[in-house]
């Protein structure tokens, strides 16, 4: 069973940056989308950013202009560059890779932004 391994979470001050990275433990074929979701305490999980097989990107309105999702197709690595972080970005961030047959989730990495 392929697992997604996330890294890069931590605690930062408002205005600072963090980069999250996600790499599968094995090979995933026929990837459709790669991206990140987040879940703040007491809130539902929400989409943050996603990139599809053609390279098109979609972002939540709350992160547009601040976050950038990118990928290394050869290694199936997806990263999330987060700039100008705000306290409201505090959440558990989950990597997601969707293939034609499977939907993979990471275990989450915590991002805390203090004011």
Concise description?
This protein is mostly beta strands.
Provide an overview of this structure.
- With 115 residues, the protein is mainly beta.
- The chain is built from no helices and 11 strands.
- Strands 2, 4, 5, 6, 9, 10 and 11 form a 7-stranded mixed beta sheet that branches. The protein has a 4-stranded antiparallel beta sheet with strand order 1-3-8-7, with no helix packed on it.
- β5 and β6 (57-59) form a beta hairpin.
- The protein starts with a strand and ends with a strand.
- The mean pLDDT is 97.
Topology:
Blueprint: E1 4-7, E2 10-13, E3 18-24, E4 31-39, E5 46-52, E6 57-59, E7 67-72, E8 77-82, E9 91-99, E10 103-105, E11 109-114
Parallel strand pairs: 2-11
Antiparallel strand pairs: 1-3, 3-8, 4-5, 4-9, 5-6, 7-8, 9-10, 9-11
Computed over alpha carbons, the radius of gyration is 13 Å
User: Class by helix and strand content?
Assistant: mainly beta
Main β-sheet description: 7 strands, mixed
**Count of extended strands:** 11
The N- and C-terminal alpha carbons lie at a distance of 40 Å
Low-confidence stretches: none
Envelope shape:
globular
What labels describe this entry?
4-stranded antiparallel beta sheet, 115 residues, 11 strands, mainly beta, 7-stranded mixed beta sheet
